[in-house]
Amino acid sequence: MSVSPYDRRAIPPRAQIHQWSAPDRWALRVFSWAAEVPQPRGSILFQGGRGDVFEKYLEAFGHWHDQGWSITSFDWRGQGGSGRLSAAGNCGHIEDFGAFVGDLRAFYDEWQAATPGPHVAMGHSMGGHILLRALVEGAVHPDAAVLIAPMLGVKSPFGQAMGERLARLMGGAGDDSRPAWRGNEKPYTTETRAALLTHDRARYEDELFWQLANPDTVTGPPSWRWVIEAFRSMRELRASPKLGEMRVPTLMLVADADGLVEPRSALAIAPSLPDVRVVRFGKEAAHELLREGDAVRDRAMGEIDGFLQARAQPR
């Protein structure tokens, strides 16, 4: 049973939810919660994973806000409260992962100019992938970065290369904006969605609460194009010679028993980064480290707190 001093099912009274227009005028749903102390600790931009909404992370936001951080997060294009890019119901679709990077670049520039430093960028799962790609490409320049169970490879019974080839074959047989599968977080599994994400039932049910409260923000399975582009983007990032040039101090939290992303891919990339600390979790941890049982979650939050204290000093 999770124990939390924060109301995980209520937007904080002084937080704001609004829309931000990307350069192409696409509307993204944004959460902003300014620090409420005379001297803010700094600013955190937190980005979730595929299908996520920022409400899932209110507990973590509350923890950092109590320390004096301003918190910002937005739903990725094509999911959550940021619209859909496919006519196939609530399918999560994208034509090119470069669009995610472009949105992050444009949003980050405005956010950094409008918020107090130091500036910290965090990304969970797909958000971790997009953040690392943006860092490597020079699209964002935070003072520190945190990658939480980053999607740098996906769990596939066929491996990364064969998985990509199969995705291209199956996705090419028809409209690739159609859903790649029906339910669950991935095909070829008998595990429940809850088991893939967290061992903490109460925190998992928080997500169900928000789905019922805001049904328009629910994102279903990805499209075949999303799957194809995810494989391509991960492959290109893993092979990028620019990994060794990315000098932003980085903390990487990896769940060795992750059933969604491939932890070996993250561990293989880490040595290429000049300034990275890797923290590994064992079988006690599923994919959502910040929404796990208290022992795992508290350790993850403690690692982040210690990293920020050491590498994101107040100005």
UniProtKB/TrEMBL annotation:
GO molecular function: hydrolase activity
Keyword tags: Hydrolase
Family annotation (InterPro entries): AB_hydrolase_fold, Hydrolase_4, MAG_DAG_Lipase
Keyword DNA damage set for record: no
Domain Serine aminopeptidase S33, first and last residues per copy: 39-293
Keyword set includes Hydrolase: yes
One Pfam family, short name: Hydrolase_4
Name of the protein described by the UniProt record: Alpha/beta hydrolase
Lineage, top ranks: Bacteria, Pseudomonadati, Pseudomonadota, Alphaproteobacteria, Sphingomonadales
